Please model this.
Amino acid sequence: MILQALLLVVALMIVGALLIFGIPPLRRALLSKAVFKTYKSILPQMSETERDALEAGTVWWEGELFQGDPDWNKLLAYPVPKLTAEEQSFMDNEVEQACSLVDDWQVTSELHDMSPEAWAYIKEKGFLGMIIPKAYGGLGFSAYAHSQVVTKLSTRCSALSVSVMVPNSLGPAELLMHYGTDEQKKYYLPRLAKGLEIPAFALTSPWAGSDAASIPDSGIVCKGQWQGKESLGMRVTWDKRYATLAPICTVMGLAFRLYDPDGLLGSKKDIGITCALVPRETPGADFGRRHFPLNAMFMNGPSHGQDVFMPLDYIIGGPKMAGQGWRMLMECLATGRSISLPSSNSGMAQMTARAVGGYARVRSQFKMAVGRFEGVEEPLTRIGAYTYMMDAVRKMTAGAVDLGEKPSVASAIAKYHVTERARQVVNDGMDVIGGKGICLGPSNFLGRAYQQIPVGITVEGANILTRSLILFGQGAIRCHPYVLKEMQAAHNPDAEQGLIDFDKALFGHIAYTIRHCLRAIMKGLTGSHFVKVPDSVAPETRRYYQQLTRFSTAFAFLADISMLVMGGELKRRERLSARLGDILSMMYLCSATLKRYESEDRQKEDAPLMHWAIWDTMYKAQMAFDGFLANFPNKFIGRLLNRIIFPLGHPYDVPSDKIGHQVAKLLISPSAARDRLTAETYVPMVETEAVGAIELALNATIEAEPIDAKIRSAEKAGMFRDMPGANVRDVAQLAFSMGVITTEEFALLKRRNHLRDIVIRVDDFPHDYGFYQRQPVAHKAAA
Ligand SMILES: Cc1cc2nc3c(=O)[nH]c(=O)nc-3n(C[C@H](O)[C@H](O)[C@H](O)COP(=O)(O)OP(=O)(O)OC[C@H]3O[C@@H](n4cnc5c(N)ncnc54)[C@H](O)[C@@H]3O)c2cc1C
Model:
């Protein structure tokens, strides 16, 4: 009897729940209405500029990773970016030539600028107009070609790469192409394409850096004298800093807030952020002084103007685009961010991998190449595997732009993680080469990169902010299938329609969260062994796809629970938000690495690079889960989530030393894999160039190693005991005179020693260097 009653109650509850959940008007009235009210009260207030920033751009592969069940077929089907014959020829000829025209030491220490010849060459050959369509006289290159060019230039000289990168990134050309009037396009684009105009873009002011939407620079709509006539225009006052190319620009894109107190344009008094193009000769516009950004020597400086009158036609897109500046900037941000910093920092990493790897084989201590010591192998491994991954991310993200995407979150991931890894790679490189990296001079190939690494970390969205606010914050809103819909419903002025939309999104959201919870438990309990993966993937990578799907499901679940528990508070808990961003990012990095491995036909020799990079990154993702769960505000829920996500412990350890050894080995020997890893590095094969000398010395070192072995055997047998000259430098001479090695072998050793001497030497200068004398003293190479 009791059992029957209980069954009846349970049945009634199920029917009741079905009625509530299954009949939308009923569930809206009984449930959603109350939830909607609470939701609206806790939803953080969002300004228009914040909304523009969050809603700009598109969602691409990162959306799949965010939503818990990535469709790997989609990733594998994305076309592999390729250069056209024209773009390839540009890389092989013009880019090579541009690199040969600059000498980084001369640029950074003597000229404090590129030489006039280098400037003339990059202008004439269209480097400054790579993104401008051919119809306007530009090169009309793909995003991938643009990335390839910047990557290679960055392996040579930062002033060269930044001077090319900036006009092709977010700035006047990009804004004109999207929003310019026909007259503005016809006038400026051909001139920008040919370097007749040098652009800069000034948004940042002393009072508004990361919080760029709060710029105090302002314009007042008014009448004034323009070219001898009274005209309607704007009186603009600005105080900007850090604008790249500003000291030499001929036209500056200027962002300011426009006001119309007298209603000359309409009823709106605060029109909003506006972007104008200000020619250098505009009376009152002041730009010409420069900053000194960490010895990088690209042009960068402040700009000022006080009540500068300019016509409304200066507004990009004309008066109708007044107030649209912020939206324009946010819409275009993702494209440049996908290319500039990921490319320049991949370039630095490629150069480090090539030159430091070579150096580590040429330089020997304790009678062994330093690159063979386990301790040195550790940083070499990071250099190799990170460079492989960074370049994979760079190429995949540039490829997305060529597919028509403006991937706001993926571009932020690429920017943040490629620049952070470049910092690690260059730091590791400095450790490996010891004092050689510390003493600056023409033969130091890494010191300037080391100095300049913070530039990439700071620009285009400073990294701490990007990690803390953008990666997960924007990701959650843009990539989640329901969050944006819920927010839009809350902001709907039609409250009734808002409730209908909210109810639909809410119940979709609930089902989505429950699904992910169940899937996370299943995948955790089964070690994700039953996750379906496309048959076409390389068998050695199969488990990575399965584990990534598992991590993606767990992440989706965690993201939802966090938003549910913390709501708007999550935005302020930046450490937690950053860790969620880390997990999403690590999955993106791994996807790009797997994509690269497949795209390059699963090169067997590259497999250690891929394996180490994936293990390291998955391990880091796991640590991000741990860090997040350990700091979850509600300890009980944190522990419960840990049980759900990792019911049988952690799937990843640190990457194996055995694979690490293979990676390090790959860096210190010439091979097709090393060439692929550093494919865009500019390597002038002459002794007088630091990177070229390493390459020549590496080849000579490898040729000489069997001869060294012969000498060592003779040494062990006691042949040179107590002989004068039996030291590390002169032992070859002794071995030759005692008939241990042949004339040809001795000649080879002499050449190796000569090259090694060039490579390991550092520059020195007169004691008063910096005041009177700037010429380094050339060294006599040892025989
Ligand atoms: C060499 C160079 C070139 C540049 N080129 C240009 C250019 O061409 N045009 C242009 O307009 N600007 C340019 N900039 C400006 C650049 O975009 C800014 O430097 C950047 O936006 C950061 O601003 P800030 O330096 O004032 O740092 P701040 O805004 O003062 O930030 C300081 C630190 O606080 C962190 N931070 C700030 N807010 C938050 C938050 N909410 N949560 C977590 N962390 C936060 C930042 O990440 C940073 O680490 C350039 C800067 C440099 C150095």
In short: The CA atoms of residues 681 and 770 lie 31 Å apart. The pocket of flavin-adenine dinucleotide is lined by residues 201-204, 209-210, 242-244, 293, 300, 455, 458-459, 462, 464-465, 468-469, 574 (CB under 6 Å). The mean pLDDT is 93. Residues 325-362 form the longest helix (38 residues).
